[in-house]
Specification:
- The chain is of the alpha+beta class.
- Helix content is about 50%, strand content about 15%.
- The protein is built from twelve helices and eleven strands.
- The chain has a three-stranded mixed β-sheet. Strands 3-5-4 form a three-stranded antiparallel β-sheet.
- Strand 6 and strand 7 form a beta hairpin.
- The chain starts with a helix and ends with a strand.
């Protein structure tokens, strides 16, 4: 369930969904097959937030046009999202934003307060993205990037030919060490890219190998390559799989998923035992998979462990006449 929500979140934030109407129908189908109501309600709230955000964006841009300051607003697309429905973690990551973004943040907050007094906006730059235009000696290229990638790029905005150390990039962007390493790696070793956006010295095999004195610079020979030929204009998506969580929250998510699967498996076994009263191991596993298949496919190990747990805690027992059968304990 969490994986479905994560992929849906990426599609809605990056606006890459092929058909929002079909996405909403999928949510209704999840309700019909018995997904938890709380989970389905949060998914529905996500679609509502996107629709409300579209209206807020239009109102914000109209107000800016009336103030003769349309250029900044027209390039912005703000998504006001309900924390309870969207956020997988309350943890936020600090980053030094480009001045153009830093200046418009208070304008957005002031506009939002005009119609939502008492509410406070919290900016989750981890989930944000944008487009930057990169100029090299071969041409100009529009790059779709995360906010963290954008922050790194802007360090070179006034000195496009300089080599800059890892330590100085950390000071300039204010990104935590692990996030800066991940971000830089996406710019020096982006998968299947014939010409990388940044160059590094010395060359390393993994982001963990970056040192404080590792040097980086903009690749002035960068170009979008099509059919083996370098183009002088083009667009490239460097976002890849949009990051939605920190390392810490990802570990917590994985633990939560394992815990939830255990609970669902125990509930399903107990449901089957309560109905059948007596059942053999093979039939129990078959019926269990049938119940859980719309959520996940339980492994044999998980099933075995939860059967043993239910036996130890007195919910069921083995038939003493045939150990391959289980008996429900009321």
């Amino acid at each position: 369930m969490r994986y479905h929500k994560a992929h849906l979140t990426r599609r809605l934030i990056l606006e890459t969904s092929a058909d929002n109407e079909k996405e909403e129908l999928m949510v209704e189908w999840l309700r019909d097959v018995g997904m938890p109501a709380d989970y389905v309600n949060k998914l529905q709230r996500m679609f509502q937030d996107i629709k409300v955000s579209n209206d807020l964006n239009q109102a914000f841009k109209d107000q800016y046009r009336n103030n003769n300051n349309a250029s900044s607003a027209d390039s912005m697309n703000i998504k006001i999202l309900n924390t309870a429905a969207w956020s997988r973690s309350s943890e936020r990551i600090t980053v030094s934003l480009p001045r153009e973004l830093e200046d418009i943040v208070p304008e957005v907050e002031e506009f939002y307060k005009q119609s939502h007094n008492g509410r406070k906006l919290q900016w989750h730059h981890l989930m944000s993205n944008g487009v930057v235009t990169m100029s090299t000696k071969l041409g100009k290229f529009d790059l779709e990037v995360t906010t963290f990638q954008m922050a790194v790029f802007y360090v070179w905005n006034q000195r496009p030919y300089d080599w800059i150390s890892f330590e100085n990039l950390r000071l300039a962007t204010e990104l935590p060490d692990v996030e800066l390493r991940r971000t830089l790696w996406s710019l020096v070793a982006f998968p299947k890219l014939k010409r990388q956006v940044l160059l590094m010295e010395p060359v390393v095999q993994a982001p963990k190998d970056f040192r404080d004195d590792s040097m980086f610079r903009v690749n002035q020979d960068f170009a979008v390559v099509k059919n083996g030929k370098a183009q002088n204009r083009g667009k490239l998506n460097l976002i890849g799989r949009l990051q939605l969580a920190t390392e810490k929250s990802r570990e917590e998510d994985n633990e939560d998923i394992v815990r939830l699967r255990i609970y669902r498996t125990q509930e399903a076994i107990n449901q089957i035992m309560k109905m059948r009263k007596r059942i053999n191991n093979a039939q129990l596993q078959t019926e269990l998979v049938e119940i859980l298949k719309n959520m996940f496919l339980p492994s044999r190990r998980l099933i075995k462990e939860q059967i043993e747990w239910l036996i130890e805690n007195g919910y069921m027992k083995r038939d003493t006449e045939d150990m391959n059968y289980f008996i429900y304990v009321a």
